[in-house]
Request: fold
Amino acid sequence: VRCQLSPPQRPLQASAVLRRVSDEQKKEPLASSSQQHFNSHPTDHQPEQEPQGPRPSYTGQGGQESEDYESEEQLQHRILTAALEFVPEHGWTAEAIAEGAKTLGLSVAAAGMFHSDGSELILHFVSQCNTKLSELLEQEQKLVQLGKAEKKPTEQFLRDAVEARLRMLIPYIEKWPQALSILLLPHNIPSSLNLLTSMIDDIWHYAGDQSTDFNWYTRRAVLTGVYNTTELVMIQDSSPDFEDTWRFLENRVADAMNMGNTAHQVQSTGEAVVQGLMGAAVTVSNAETVRAVR
Amino acid sequence: LPAGGAPLRRCSTRAAPEGVNKAVIDRIIRVDHAGEYGANRIYAGQMAVLGRSSAGPVIQQMWNQEKDHLKKFNELMVAYRVRPTVLLPFWNVAGFVLGAGSALLGKKGAMACTVAVEESISDHYNSQIRTLMEEDPEKYKELLQIIKQFRDDEREHHDIGLEHDAEAAPAYTVLKTAIQIGCKAAIFLSERI
Reply:
């Protein structure tokens, strides 16, 4: 690293170091996962434009930097995406991130940008999966709107959506228990909960849920339960293509649908009973009146 | 916190429709929905007691308008993907009890309750209109129109309440203040949870 930087290294300085190292190494063939971001990182032949001051700005201050610059955030996303390839081997760790950084032509010191327990890598992965799921559901919805596909009944829709989302875990299933335990660490819970709730809300939205009363909460709570239990079954499932998991999922979703019907029946029964009691009360009161008059 | 890590912003899976300020719209729709729901229940309570009295038709008419308001907010809630407040079951009961309770004080009591609630609601709508105007009147044109219309309707209810001798109700000032404090609390809570 041929830069003079005074400690403590701040995030922007760290990225600046990495950028310069990468530029100096020139581009070896980059990992395929970073190809899509190549546009934000064009010819490094040109000297970097220094907008103002000694260090290039990575966050969008003043709009001075050129379009060539990617923000620090985009760089972090690229590194994490590249790191996913190494998760089956190294687990959700700083090693995987370091390997990912290497494939992008960056120094392994890039892993220092992230938490040492791999939290950001896991959260990044979950967020990516959720985005993929949303896109999938959006496409399906478009097909139905164009009349090219049949609208699925709710039960099947939920089943398929949860299955599609869980299948994204398959390449990483060996190391997924580790990821789950990290997601449950106190400092990760707000983020992981947020990701979980927005995913479940997405699924219900595309399933056509339009509830505006307390049902909004019960439906989401039930589906969250289904998703979490199925996920747990999946990580210890050894059947071919996880067929035990999908059967478990089918049963849980069926239970959830039944719950809705049962609640409905209970309400109707309750109303009928009340009506019956009111009728009885009126009859008795009439009988008393007749008797009193006589 | 990690040595060099700025917190990584997660990509949101929920794209805001046409770049609206989700946080602000969320709160507005959630609290307005809760408000109209509560107003519905208040009138339902009043009708349960005074339905067959001379005030019945007036209350019924105001109730019908509130039903339309609630229907509109139900639609907006789905369109903007806003979650309803968890306190809905509570407002269900509390609203009915307030309506029935005020109606038991007589027709004037019910009208006093209406005046108090409608005044709170119109002030609340006014501050929302101000917020949206400060944000971006063009972007929120449709929502502004709806809120303005509803604010005018609530003002009308307020005036009807006054016309029907709300101020002659027993302990009018105390009643009105208590109800308005309750409304403020309800608004505060429904915006957040």
